[in-house]
Amino acid sequence: MSGHGTPIPMTSRRASPLKGEAHVPGDKSISHRSLILGAMAVGETKISGLLEGEDVLDTAKAMQAFGAEVVNHGGGEWSVFGVGVGGFAEPENVIDCGNSGTGVRLIMGAMATSPITATFTGDASLNKRPMARVTDPLALFGAQSVGREGGRLPMTIVGAAEPVPVRYEVPVPSAQVKSAVLLAGLNAPGKTVVIEREATRDHSERMLAGFGAEITVEDTKEGRVITLTGQPELKPQVISVPRDPSSAAFPVCAALITPGSDVLVPGIGLNPTRAGLFYTLQDMGADLTFENPRTEGGEPVADLRAKYSPDMKGIEVPPERAASMIDEYPVLSVVASFATGTTMMAGVKELRVKESDRIDAMAKGLRANGVTVEEGEDWWSVEGCGPEGVKGGGTAESFLDHRIAMSFMVMGMGAQNPVSVDDGSPIATSFPIFERLMGDLGASIIRTDG
Known about the structure:
24 strands, 27% strand, 12 helices, four-stranded mixed sheet, 450 residues, alpha/beta
């Protein structure tokens, strides 16, 4: 599959119960950050378990373009020979970040306080996404940006020759914006302060500390205050990337709605800022348990066991949980379709500026498959059809969004009739082994492009 090429229509239908172990790929957020921080360290950072989806591979290419040596040893084993904080070279060509909002925003932050110029672009989906939420705070450091109308890619960033530290309150919960500011702060003198009113995934803070940056995190009346001391010498690390909870969501949710299923998903990262979906599913009555809890690489990890759960009930998802599960709302809405009662999801306006407008995309696809959905700017609700009540039979548009495509493939595993998507090619950006992994569990997903 290729998120950059010819559309690949796909259809999923109910088959046998899902059984076995689902070894999902490495965490996408940690994979991006491992490459970028490795490139900003001095010496060799060794990475195992790197997610080798297109998004992360585009970030690896970008780090090479900025002067780091990036070596793929095979089997998820990589080395990054970094150039140090402030050591980025000016790239010779345009940086293509494909489908990755995380990649482009973090890389912009990492280069914005060096006296170099870089031009960024992406695929059709990424080039529609707003970049001002990152370029506005980067301008406070002294960086300049010129892009298309609405602050969209392609965009050229002129890094600050004499950067200054900033104090920035993130206006909307966004780990990407927070991380971009912190990465920019690495090459600014003094202390850069980021304040977030709602906690978002904290991989950047944990990993910056691991690489030797001086960083503190304090909960105050203002919110969560993160203070970074600039111009450190980052030390190379040995990183074992935990398996991605956002990818684990798909086999877990598929097992919950497919009769007779029992699936174990080993080694999943359960960072508290990422695990909201799993607690929400338990609140709905899902037969989902955490086995063998442990700590790996400073991150909490467990094996997830998911079994068919015909007694799930619709709930009101706590809005304060949104930041910890923002990427999982699409597949949660599929599970909600198989529950009894209504599931309300509020505080989720961030979904409208992801790879697609995910509220709109899921609402259209769910309705095409016989599910009642109501929506507002910052909320949506799904009326459950019960464990055997989702009709299916429709085709959903993926809008070049990997999570939309995978969510509807999950729906087809429990629906009365097959469910199709117009284009499953974007799945390769984050979960290149999705079809094979689900097929090994017993799912029936076929490509319908002739």
